[in-house]
Amino acid sequence: MTHYELLKSGESLLNTIRKNGVTADDVRYLEVYENLERMEREGHKKTFIVAYLCNQYDISEATLYRVANRMRRAITAF
């Protein structure tokens, strides 16, 4: 498969991603966000969740909040 073929096969999805400002780098935060959601469902305190995840994934509080806000943002352009 060539670079062109890969892009062409996902053209529609990639255009939607681009129009909504989603970057390929966001994929590295999927596990962080999944754990954030799980811990919130389990009823842990927000301060504990933030401290735990920042330590676990070696990220800052600002990064964690930025990731959470991006992941929760609704997709608007199709």
Tell me briefly what this model is.
This protein has helices at residues 3-9, 11-19, 30-41, 46-57, 61-72. It is mostly helical. It starts with a helix and ends in a 6-residue tail after the last helix.
Query: Strand portion, in percent?
Result: under 5%
Terminal CA distance: 27 Å
Number of strands: 0
Mean pLDDT: 95
Helical content band = 55-70%
Structural class determined from secondary elements: mainly alpha
The number of distinct helices, counting runs of at least 4 residues, comes to: 5
Sheet bearing the most strands, described?
none
* pLDDT < 50 runs, ≥5 residues: none
Q: Which word captures the global form? A: elongated
Order of helices and strands: HHHHH
Radius of gyration: 16 Å
Descriptive key words:
single chain, 78 residues, mainly alpha, 5 helices
Structural write-up:
With 78 residues, the protein is mostly helical. The chain is 67% helix and 0% strand. It has five helices and no strands. The longest helix has 12 residues, at 30-41. The mean pLDDT is 95.
Could you outline the blueprint of secondary structure elements for this entry?
Blueprint: H1 3-9, H2 11-19, H3 30-41, H4 46-57, H5 61-72
Helix pairs in contact: 3-4
